[in-house]
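Appendix B: complex inputs.
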Amino acid sequence: MGRDVVVLPTLPEPKGVLAKALRGLTKKPGDVATLPARTHMVMEHRVAVSRLAAYCAETGFALRDEMPATWLHVLTFPLQTEAMAADDFPFPLAGLVHVTNDMTLHRPLRVDEVLRVSVRAGNLQPHAKGATFDMVGEVHVGDELVWHGTSVYLAGGARVAGDAPPPVRLAAPSVAPSQEWRLPGDLGRRYASVSGDHNPIHLNALTARLFGFPRPIIHGMWTHARAVAALGGELPDAYRVRVQFAKPILLPAKVGYGVVREDGQWRFAVVNREGKPHLVGELSVARRGEP
Amino acid sequence: MTSRTAVVVGGNRTPFVKAGGRYADASAQDLLTAALDGLVARFGLAGQEVGEVVAGAVLKHTRDFNLTREAVLGSALSPHTPACDLQQACGTGLEAVVYASNKIRLGQMDVAIAGGVDSASDAPLVVTERLRKAMLALSRARSLPDKLTALARIRPADLAPVPPAVVEPRTGLSMGESQALTTAKWGITREEQDDLALASHRNLGAAWDAGFFDDLVTPYLKVARDSILRADTSKEALAKLRTVFGKGEAATMTAGNSTALTDGAALVLVAEEEYARGRGWPVWAKVVDAQVAASDYVTGREDLLLAPTRAIPVLLERNGLTLDDFDFFEFHEAFASTVLATLKALEQNGVGTVDRSKLNVKGSSLAAGHPFAATGGRIVASLAKMLHERGPGSRGLVSICAAGGQGVVAILEA
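Resulting structure:
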């Protein structure tokens, strides 16, 4: 069976996708054997400077011509949602938990480059609490792969045949936090407007409660971006960054950030008052030809 | 102590853009960081410690109290690079170069980065004085009645933000209105002003076309050239513009012969001469000497923007030079009439005559735009390169007028 390629003229507007996703709430996954073999793609995406600027202002990056890797993930996100909102996609979008993320920026990517953005689902795996799958995003300039990323999601309650592989665990650096971040109560709405991720769990207490959170939680990808931005001028030109989302941050919040640099790689964690990690990550210099 | 010389080895700036344009979403810190990124890349400074980075901004948020240091921390320079914010209105960029050069000459450092940034798009909005005082009282209040009392003092009209204005606090006149007085006093005609503006656009356009700015400017946010530049403008087009400063029939100043509000950042790399040679950097020009002066403008006896005419004779005297000893004059074009009145005053005061064929030969602020604190860095880097191209012994005079009736002037020599 060949892969379907769905070419969209532009990145879908996130709010429309959200409506589609809400219709998917009635999906009852149960036994799942496969994911749709389909790639969603936008052939020529031109970055709007004002959107990049708003993203950078909200996440702590300086507004440069060279774009942050986490911003490229944001560009793939509407396609991820589009793919997962499809009728034949087995899991309801709203119940998915983003567990880990792994992305590589292969070279500095400038704001004036024309990007081909694509997303596909794959790697369905059994998990102790359900099933996991990967959303794989790629950004090309011409034929050159300049960014790729894998978001691993957990679909609770689903059943996939086989034994669950051992979970990947990143180790938090054993270092006292050197930064304190104050996350205001409206940060979820603010990040939703710059990222296009309007998942109701991030927006306000009422919508968060519908999904079992006492207060809105900040997007994991905000925490991820902020943690990378915190490296400031040390951030290499090309890098791979992996993060594990350990525990949601309820808004408003005060969290700590600690980072160590050893053997040419950075290990960082965003932690709560007790030092328990919300997010753990590793960042290393990407070299040509490496995955 | 052996003699030490401070030299300009290069520079980098963003293209300059009209306020509210393509840089509308960039903060002053973003712009300064962008200029720094380009300089660091051009001179291979990533990971290295620079003696000091000194820069400033005229329109400045309180959150930017450490603007330059924050830009350094966001750059690839070593975090051990110290930084300093300095501000003297439009003289900021040149004063930063003077500060850095003096420290280098004194042996306090070997290499420095100097310049400035301004974003009229990112200008801070201020709240009304009544609202500010009420909010401060509210933050001090401990009991509920105290808090309510503080809140009750706020009137609806207090909630409107106070837009920034470039107005002299002591005269209440905007810079354009002040300059209109100077223009009339010195009898500067509309035609002279438009001619100077036209020359600025033609010269800057020709310099861009010749690739002069290839190693002086790094593109930013999809902008590769100064966006105010109208290389194809004409005397007729400039003559059609309506006047914006001055009153009635006598008004001569237009948007064409006055600088526009501009966003941009410019930096210069300054080093001790032997140190620069040791690193294989080009030695473009020495920073020979500088002078500041101020005018008695509040009383109306003197002109707001003609303080350089007080500084120039002092500087020439100290260095045993006359206006005939210079190959290039870089006189900042706050307004065309500022430059023309400066030339007239220098003649009238017996200082000498500026050869117009040597004036702003690569264009100046009328065509490039004028992000206040960035102008000094733009001028110094361009002039140093021009002198380097002209050859050893060639000399240039920089003159920049600033708010508060101040002026800063400097001599560069290849």
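Chain B is about 35% helix and 20% strand.
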